[in-house]
């Protein structure tokens, strides 16, 4: 069992932001800034969807030549925005929206409450 904190993960980032908003949280500006292990993550809200800016990729060690070639060929081929499926292997019809705005990549989708309750600290 690992007790380490994940530096960043999209589902808990958007989920905790959604819970904060549902509990009455109010953004100070156009975006919500959430502190994660990886640093400050910018989140935007558009109707019932939340999206975060993809954090910089972190990698250490040698990159295999075949992977490097796949990445090199793939750069610049994706459209400015697209939708991908997630969860189909477990019977869910999740959709994730990817959108490039300038040098930033936003990742997000619809959010909803699945569990309700209260936590007393």
Question: Main traits of this protein?
Answer:
121 residues; alpha+beta; six-stranded antiparallel beta sheet; 2 helices; 19% helix; 32% strand; globular
What does this structure look like?
By secondary structure, the protein is an alpha+beta fold. It has helices at 10-22, 65-74, and strands spanning 32-36, 39-46, 49-53, 81-86, 94-101, 104-110. The longest helix has 13 residues, at 10-22. It is globular. The two termini are 25 Å apart. The model has no long low-confidence stretch (mean pLDDT 81).
Radius of gyration: 17 Å
Helix content: 10-25%
The stretches of 5 or more residues where confidence is low (pLDDT under 50) are none
What's the arrangement of strands in the largest beta sheet? 1-2-3-6-5-4
Strand content: 25-35%
Helix/strand order: HEEEHEEE
Largest sheet: 6 strands, antiparallel
Distance linking N and C termini: 25 Å
Number of strands: 6
By helix and strand content, what is the structural category? alpha+beta
Give the overall form: globular
Task: Please give the count of helices.
Answer: 2
How many domains? The number is 1
Helix and strand topology:
Blueprint lengths: L9 H13 L9 E5 L2 E8 L2 E5 L11 H10 L6 E6 L7 E8 L2 E7 L11
Antiparallel strand pairs: 1-2, 2-3, 3-6, 4-5, 5-6
